Description:
Elements: E1 6-12, H1 20-33, E2 37-43, H2 49-61, H3 67-85, H4 93-111, H5 119-127, H6 129-142, E3 145-147, H7 166-183, E4 186-189, E5 192-194, E6 200-202, H8 208-219, E7 223-228, E8 249-251, H9 252-260, H10 271-276, E9 281-285, E10 294-297, E11 307-321, H11 329-341, E12 346-351, E13 355-361, H12 364-374, E14 378-392, H13 396-403, E15 408-413, E16 417-423
Parallel strand pairs: 1-2, 1-7, 2-4, 3-4, 7-9, 8-10
Antiparallel strand pairs: 5-6, 9-10, 11-13, 11-14, 12-13, 14-16, 15-16
The structure holds aspartic acid and magnesium ion (MG).
Amino acid sequence: MQEQQSLQVYKFGGASVKDAAAIRNLAGIVREHAVHSQLLIVVSAMGKTTNALEEIFQLAFTGQDFAPPLATLHRFHRAVAQELFEDKPAENEKLAELLAQLEQHLTELQQNPAPADSYDQHYDQIISFGELLATCIVARALGAQWLDCRPLLRTDHTWREGRIDWPTTEWNVREQLPDMLQRGPVVTQGFLGGTAAGQTTTLGREGSDYTAAIFAYCLQAEAVTIWKDVAGLLNADPKFFADTVRFPAISYQETIEMAYYGASVIHPKTIKPLAVRQIPLFVKSFLAPTAEGTRIGEGRHEQLSPAFIRKDGQCLISFESKDLTFISEENLEVIFGALAQVRLKINMMQNSAISFSVCTDYSAYRLEKLLGLLREQFTIHYNTGLELYTIKNYDPASIGRLTAGRELLLEQRTRQTFQFACRGREVSGLL
Ligand code: ASP
Ligand code: MG
């Protein structure tokens, strides 16, 4: 009798597919680690492709010339394919078709100005090509099956942040994947979904981790592994902080909280579906695939070392009622309603007698809309260009380390968490 094979979901982000050498490295990991498992491989756009597509989309949407950056993107993908497939044609039929579709979409957009409020919808139709192109190349490099995930991962119409229709998605995935996985590894796109009407949606920037979790949940996979360019889940981003430490094992709960506060290592929505089905998540380095990494799963902790999370591009907005009355629940209801309507997310908030302050991610467009909604009722002050720091499991030394020499514009402390907003400054060395 044939042994029942375990099913693993691997997720490879942009850095792990950034060029031909990286894709060869990925292929090595898949070959060595997947001999005994069925394997679903979720892949993001290559390198900085998503950012490049955002720029190209912006040009097309505003009727400008997008040809030069599109040509660069095209050349980049073709060069990687050329290097990988050597004597075979760089563009197989699929790649050529995708590149042609992308150009056609952009040309239509440039020539027929679309209404401003359809921006997010068009964004998803264009930005999704990063993942489509990357998976096309990776699947070919692995000799694996290519799966278009969009007809399976059903979302609503919340463009750029599609909300998963779980029952439909689970049904679709179970209908299609097991047979494919029996035949061999499957490569599919992170970050994408589709509406019932067949339009493409995206799941939020850096959403490929979430995709891996969605598939794992639907297939009741044995484990998910996110392959990154860091050694595992660290207590801080080594780009900004010195002396980082790796957590060898950490609970779902702690990880969700860190992601919520902005730790960029895992997309915040990833953990819940895994926790519901008790599927462990491994974070490992694609540069050192045999090293231990981090295991995220069920469990409780003694004291964990402090985790430092930095979010830039913040905006502090303060609302005062015009007649100097106290901020009431009725006022708060209006303010929260407006924030939700313009989709500004609150990262920290505080109430005082006559004013209410929130720290949010800055977006000139959303802030302008918010001011339009609330200006009549409130006097509003705001500061942009701020940073928000969160220390989870803080101790006095960790607070001293981060706050030294800074003016704190807003601060807050709970039993486990210390947060403050301050002016951004030039980074001079690591914190
Ligand atoms: N390529 C998308 C992004 O850069 C999704 C991802 O990387 O997870 O946001
Ligand atoms: Mg990416």
